[in-house]
User: Fold these one by one.
Assistant:
Number 1:
Amino acid sequence: IVDIGAMQAAHVRTNRRAPVQICSVQTLERRELPPATVVIVDEAHVYAGVISKWMQARPDLVFIGLSATPGRAGMADEWQDLIVSVTTRDLIEAGYLSQYTVYAPTTPDLSNVKIVAGEYQAKGAAEVMAQSGLVGDILQNYVLHGEDRPTLGFAVNVAHAKRMAEEFTAAGIPSAFVEARTDTLEREAIQNAFTRGEIRVIWSVRTMAAGVDLPISGIIDAAPTRSAMLHQQKIGRGLRKNPGTEDLKVWDHAGNTLRLGFVHELDWSTLPGGKREVVKVERKQPLPKECGECHFLMEPKVKECPCCGAARKVPNGYVETADGELVPLNAETGRAKVPTAVKQEWYGCLLGYAAERGYAQGWAYHKFYEKFGIYPASQFKKIQKIPTPEVRSWIKSRAIAAAKAREARRAS
Ligand SMILES: [Zn+2]
């Protein structure tokens, strides 16, 4: 047994002579910095001024930070190195974390919600999410598809969390809500009732988004965020395996997975720099796709819903790139964002066509502009290709359009 002391007023484990001391950040802030040679900081993605000060005051100490989501802006200025020992994907594949599926039963329109320091403004998001239609949808979805799963619900603010718990309870799904001010005894009573199955859904804002280990197999996300960290922390609550909760269903009513991606695809391999009060919004992977029939969210390249078998449709106003990414049609030019590889292919075909017809290379250069709205810069190689039928028919259609335009000009 290792001799461990707890630095807290009147704690049973208080033992100043123990070589290992456990201390909360709050206690640390109120006391003088204790002597140490190694400092281990848990949940290091949460900013703590006192840790920052400690690092600056004692550069001779070794600080080891632990986090599942080292994505807070400014972390690169505090920590010198990042070691990724294992990823969420690894842990799911190895069977240590639950398999999970995500549904987007409704996706809110957040286009009018203000973004402050990179994150949705809570007031605006609450106005959208607390609309009775949406509240009703969330309830109805759980009634129809919830399978009575022990579930955590995430709401935008305390009033929203309280209301959701009330609506669920009124509909016969015993629910509770927990906030930061809920005292320890009440929280324990709620968690015990939840474990016994007497409470089905616990609603909170962020209180339940960290450090909770309850048997959970459902997550209702009704709190839009632009923070991949928060997204991962919330879904992460349901990924821990407990007897009876080996798989997780996520009902994402906030558009978070469609906006930020599946949590097992998120990349935490780089410590972000920048100002710490700004939410980092970064994504490299193509986003998940929603099944139009059953709202199951599938991997980007999947063409058929693994859940209901429906063929996936590309929504209006979007086009799909070769790697499965949906990109909006550019509203200004009516042109879609096209991957470089596709443009390179076109440039080659246009050069090939020019060679066939004995046109100058400049012809291909201008046709490329006509097609994509940009000139083929030096990144594009001048490699002639045999024109594809698609390129040939496009050239033909442009020639016809040009002829018609000439005729129209002559007639006027
Ligand atoms: Zn489906």
Note: The chain has 13 helices and 16 strands.
Number 2:
Amino acid sequence: LRLGDALGATDSLKKGMGALKSPLIREQAARISPMPALVAQIAATLSDEPPVNPRDGNVIRAGLNAEVDELRGLASGARGVIAKLEATERERTSIPSLKVRYNNIFGYYIEITKTNLERVPADYERKQTLVSAERFTTPALKELERKILTAESALKELELQIFTKLLRDLQSHAATILETARAVGEFDALMSLAKVARHRGYVRPTINTGLRIRVRDGRHPVLEAGMRAGEFVPNDLDAEPDTRQILLITGPNMAGKSTYLRQVALIAIMAQIGSFVPAAEATIGLIDRVLTRIGARDELRRGESTFMVEMSETARLLKGLSERSLLLLDEVGRGTSTFDGLAIAWAVAEYLHDQTRAKVLFATHFHELTDLARERPRVKNLSMAVREWGDEVIFLRRVIEQPASRSYGIEVARLAGLPDSIITRAREILANLEQGELDEAGMPRIARDRRGKTLAPQLGLFSPREERIVDELRALDIERMTPMDALNALARLSARLKQKK
Ligand SMILES: Nc1ncnc2c1ncn2[C@@H]1O[C@H](COP(=O)(O)OP(=O)(O)O)[C@@H](O)[C@H]1O
Ligand SMILES: [Mg+2]
């Protein structure tokens, strides 16, 4: 039926498409064959609401086949006879609750409740005993049952035959139907692209044989669709193998790096499939492939760790890059220790610069990598702009032509709700790390606290509040205090310590 509906719609579709100017669409229209005879055959053969499974009957439209109509009449006529039989048996036995019923296992039967059993006539044959009732049959009921079941199974068989013949007729037109479906599908895809282009303000990209990709005010087509108007922040792109081959994008987590990478890939692909693109302007030098290392898809079930997957994907990507390739690397080296990860990310970026001409967008949380731009001329530092506001960071979602000054991980952790004591401690550890790795005693600085004492690499003994109290205690100048002052100070500190833990 669906096929009939769809084919039935192709006639006016073909006419409409044929009236358009586009040669591509006119060519698609020419490939559409409406096949009115098949449409009519489907409509004449199938009933209006056939079952999902053609073996369930009621498939064939009434009036198509005399034998089908006759068998249906027999089957439904017999049901009327059953109802009549029920009525006469009730009268004959004087059992008003007597029922004639059907089930798949026992067929038709007369059901009599236990209380009425003494009124059962002698010609009843027992079929089945239940807790509260007995089931019987009679010669007349048996004869009826045979007629009904025969008619019904003959009917199903015949309906199935007619349906199968229809399928065979359709099959002989399969090639034409499929070609029509393909042309309609292509047109449907173009229509959808045209629709979103109009509704969402896309522009026609310029495609040329150059190597440069430029986008002004590009947007992520999917993310933007889920946002209020004006909420998505558009961004530019300028990538080109001779001067801006490797664009290193730094910025904190949540700043919008991954979104930017993906939107660039989507714009490039959309341009090349013939779509308008979500941007104010785009010029795309033909691309031969878009390669990505994105997200941390874990293949642990196949026995590979995230890091292994990341590395093997990266290895695969590095092969066969041409100057027309667009490579997106998102957070390469995240799945291992910081130094390992940074070292790998650095080496990969160097390799891409020195050995390939592919255009690369390299998003990384290692802001140390930005130093690479000093040594490699075709590496450019971009970052996602953030504004610092007291202790807070505000994401502006704007790509700017400068490296991130730092990674803001702790600020983001704070935004995400890590407890203050952890945030405070993380700031101390970060300060130590930024001073260098080891202290004078050769202890890792990461374990030192603010006062230079080396602690075990775990959280300090005291909470920040207690530490402040200890600091105050340390600052007390006992020599100069009266006993009363000293007692008061002691009482104050003790009271603060006892405040809710
Ligand atoms: N250009 C943008 N305009 C508005 N919101 C954005 C933009 N880019 C990213 N976002 C928002 O920020 C979130 C984090 O972006 P994402 O690209 O995953 O950041 P990163 O990769 O830097 O951690 C996105 O889910 C989206 O909600
Ligand atoms: Mg990301």
Note: Residues 202-409 form a domain with the Rossmann fold fold (CATH 3.40.50.300).
